[in-house]
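Deliverable D2.4 — example input (structure tokens):
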């Protein structure tokens, strides 16, 4: 499932259904100096994929670059709670995509919390 493209660079693909249409999605994994992993456009975190990543290093960053590539970001963060979660400003976390972000979003909407910004996501608090 995880294919090495170059030194410290991998790709994983997966089929999903969008409005009944089959769509192939791709996640890119970069191992940074020091061994930490950076995930871009996360796909569903299958146990075999997580095991392959665990063998490569610690997942430290999860990047959901747009509204179509955020679907599994929260699921990845649930498995790697110390990883920073970054998202496009158009992404509004929901209970399905990031359960801990919904509590954060409710906190941000309280009166007097005008300086609290949830997106772009600096991290999804737990």
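Example output (designed residues):
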């Amino acid at each position: 499932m995880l294919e090495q493209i170059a030194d410290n660079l991998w790709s994983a693909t997966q089929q999903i259904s969008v409005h009944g249409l089959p769509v192939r999605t791709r996640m890119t994994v970069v191992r940074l100096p020091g061994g930490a992993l950076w995930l871009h456009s996360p796909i569903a975190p299958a146990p075999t994929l997580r095991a392959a990543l665990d063998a490569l290093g610690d997942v430290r960053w999860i990047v959901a670059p747009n509204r179509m590539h955020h679907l599994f970001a929260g699921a990845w963060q649930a498995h790697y709670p110390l990883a920073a979660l970054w998202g496009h400003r158009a992404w509004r976390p929901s209970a399905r995509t990031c359960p801990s972000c919904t509590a954060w979003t409710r906190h941000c909407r309280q009166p007097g919390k005008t300086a609290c910004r949830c997106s772009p996501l600096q991290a999804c608090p737990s």
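Residues 47-56 form the longest helix (10 residues).
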